[in-house]
Amino acid sequence: MSVQEALPFPEPDGAPVLPPVSAAPALELRGVTVRYGQVPALDRASLRLVPGTVTCLLGENGAGKSTVVQVVSGVRRHDEGELLVDGRPVRFRRPRQARARGIATIWQDLAVVPLMTVWRNFWLGDEPTRGVWPFRRIDLDAAREGAARALERVGLPGLNVNQPAAALQQGQRHSLAVARAVHFGARVLVVDEPAAPLTVAQHALVLRTVVAARDAGVAVLFVTSMPSYAHLVGDRFVLLAGGRVAADLTREDVDVEGLTQLMSGGEALATLTAELRRGR
Amino acid sequence: MVTAAQRPVFGVPDRRPPSRWRRLLTRPSTPALAGVVVALVVFGVQAPQLLGAGGWASVLDASALIGIGAVAITLLLVAGQFDVSIGVLSVASSVTTGLLVTEAGWGLWPSLAVSLLAALAVGTVNGLLVVVTGLPSFLVTLATFLVLQGGTLVVAQTVAGTSLVDGVEGAPGWTSVDAVFGSVLTLGDGRFRVDVLWWVAAVLLAGWLLRRTRFGNAVYALGGSRRAARELGVPTAWTTVALYLLTATAAWLLGTLALVRQGGVPVAPGFGAEIEYLVVAVIGGCLLGGGYGSAVGAAAGALLYGTVRTGIGVAGWPPQAFQVVLGVLLVVALLANGVARRRLIAVPRS
């Protein structure tokens, strides 16, 4: 599919046609629609995540990126279409089910509760317990040790897991989110890049996480609004606009400039540049 | 896969052993416990009889009921919620019990069971309204407060034609109910009421729930970062409703203890108790924004309340001085909580 064919937006009629891919997708969205009231936040979006590849999800604010993340990670249920894990349709009712299927998410805000300790943050939503109800309680030793071991694996050996997460540096917090995401054996990793401005070092951290997961054979969905960073690591680029897939490109189809132009709406940017120049 | 050597190290691991003293400062209960010690010293000097058995009995008696309410409010505050209706609900449930006994002629135990169910129903409504509307819980429970306040008066006056329900003593089951909710242990010149045991039980239960269970983690997460809680699949709605059920149970317990103590109840539900619970919970270290607080802190806050209230009486200060001291304590607590929170963020603890 070339850039010219991808723009303007594909007609909504007819089933979306996806280019063939080499390996079987670990996760697939087929014509998924999500509505907030009457307004579709996601309109018949299709997406394939293949093991060992990085799929970049690009788009402006409000294009539907976070809705895709929410559907894939089980926070929100889709209204229409199919969500397939290993070719079988699923319908997640809660994030725990997505995690159990090996879909891990690194959230934009890293999903860290600042005033809770590191180990409580690590297990939040899926704490190891012992005893039977009503005496069921958190297995403190297992939880502390498990969190410490998982953090060691992502490069934080000897971190005090009893300190509040607020005491962690930004990078350490990111590691906490990574450790939590991969703990249950992630096969699909969703990385939702923060919208807040990051330093270059923080961007590097996110990108290294993406590349490390890809090298481990994980299917990665990298959600970002920065085409330059996306092009550094991406194998496939899916552009969202107004809740629809506006373009689905491979590395061969597009270079950084092309991607940036597509992102900013090409013509609109050209017009803007011309106007500004004339104004001067 | 990247090897260990290639793997990026994110930040520098912190190996500093946190000092015991600095860790102590990050606990929500520390300022209130320090306040209890100061109050005991101040009033112990002014009125030494405060430290005798009789004095302790008075202190604990003044602390117990407020302590039960404060521990319930603490759970809510940690989750970032509040319940204005807890005080009125306690009056409403004791009126329900009283009317079932005096007007319908029921036994005490079945009446208590029915009023507990009614209180739980109110708690469910509160919780569901907060979850469904997503409005500030202060407003939602203010509505419940008004309905209960008016409703209790109307029902009591229509059914009993009076604004004082009494005569529950001697009703079937009174002996056993009095033993459970009204026992008194006399030690020396101190009369220790069973309320104190209920208070201790409430604190232990709340402490265990908060520190040791998944429910407690969910409560802290709700108040600390609702978005993170939702993203991680913490059952936010269920947890909120469960919290209001616990508060309703505490209200019922408070109402029952008052009913049994006085053998009746004046139907005069008003504003007041819930504000004192809130003040005590904040003195006990809760942040109004949520995510921070402890059951031990609530207990310490209630003990401080009881000590000051009794101490002012025993030392012969004018009773109005109590409000002044409580207000000063609240301001000090608000400042201390802010400091504790900053320290918590800055200092590792275990």
From TrEMBL, chain A:
Protein's UniProt name: Simple sugar transport system ATP-binding protein
Molecular-function GO term, any one: ATP hydrolysis activity
Keywords: ATP-binding, Nucleotide-binding, Sugar transport, Transport
Keyword hit for GTP-binding: no
Origin species: Klenkia brasiliensis
Domain ABC transporter positions: 27-267
Origin: domain of life: Bacteria
Gene3D superfamilies membership: P-loop containing nucleotide triphosphate hydrolases
PANTHER family (alphabetical): CARBOHYDRATE TRANSPORT ATP-BINDING PROTEIN MG119-RELATED, SUGAR ABC TRANSPORTER ATP-BINDING PROTEIN
Family annotation (InterPro entries): AAA+_ATPase, ABC_carbohydrate_import_ATPase, ABC_transporter-like_ATP-bd, P-loop_NTPase
UniProtKB/TrEMBL annotation, chain B:
Highest taxon listed in the record's lineage: Bacteria
Name by which UniProt lists this protein: Xylose transport system permease protein XylH
UniProt entry keywords in alphabetical sequence: Cell inner membrane, Cell membrane, Membrane, Sugar transport, Transmembrane, Transmembrane helix, Transport
A single Gene Ontology CC term: plasma membrane
Function as written in the Swiss-Prot or TrEMBL entry: Part of the binding-protein-dependent transport system for D-xylose. Probably responsible for the translocation of the substrate across the membrane.
Entry's localization field: Cell membrane
Record-annotated membrane-spanning stretches: 24-44, 56-79, 86-106, 112-132, 139-160, 196-211, 232-255, 267-288, 295-315, 321-340
Short name of any one Pfam family annotated for the protein: BPD_transp_2
KW Transcription regulation (keyword) present: no
Keyword tRNA-binding assigned: no
Naturally occurring in which organism (per UniProt): Klenkia brasiliensis
Annotated membrane topology: Multi-pass membrane protein
GO molecular function: transmembrane transporter activity
